[in-house]
Amino acid sequence: MGIAMDNVQQLIHTALEEDMAFQDITGLACIAVHAKGTAKLVAKATGVLSGCDVSAACFQSRDASLSKKWFKHDGDTVQAGDVLAHVSGSLRSLLAAERTALNFLQHLSGIATTTHAFVCCVDGTGCQIVDTRKTTPGMRQLEKQAVQHGGGVNHRMDLADAMLIKENHIAACGSISDAVGACYTWDDRCFVEVECETLAQVTEAVLVAPDMILLDNMTVAMVKEARALVPDSILLEASGNINLDNAKHYAATGVNRLAIGAMTHSSPVLDVSLLIVVDN
Length: 280
Known about the structure:
By secondary structure, the chain is α/β, with parallel strands linked by helices.
């Protein structure tokens, strides 16, 4: 997945402005104008990194003269105590950018860490872990990239990526058959997925042969029944109420993918600290 860097730079600018629309009065009061040093970024927990480039860009957007050296990189597994990076230069600049840089790094690494936990949970089943569009407004590209760093797979980036017929589309069209037919009539080359909440809907969907069926909020037992109803030519995805305690049970049913919204909307951050070493 390519990242539109103009969008990311605007996001960084907005985030930095939240903290310092005018000036850092604490830094101005406490730190000499020419004081220099190094910020050490240190992991305080085990996890998977994501957001290293964004974090570095926060520092350099505040002060282009700051230098950086990363010892760990996006997708790397880190342990508590690992030094992730050194950023050196003006102490005023380092401390002015500290919180914003850490906010991005901790949040995105938290998503990568949770994703990795789900990927490990279903290891050996052949089932993919995929994300959803339940992302923080403005952060979708970065959060979906974090899912990749954790070993997951991206679902749709936006509404133009593929056709996903959900319950409200079905209600608007009148039936699954009508909705799927309308999608293929509109563009017969497009990937079409249809959401089913009951086994009766699965049976109806199989008759019109979409590319994928999404089993929404079904129990493991229902997913097993659905798997028996759906030919291998139609991909199967399960979503809803899937967590680390039951993910392997869902994956073992033979579905192709598990969609986990919680990876982007509910992951705890990976704790990272910033320690200043002052130049003599």
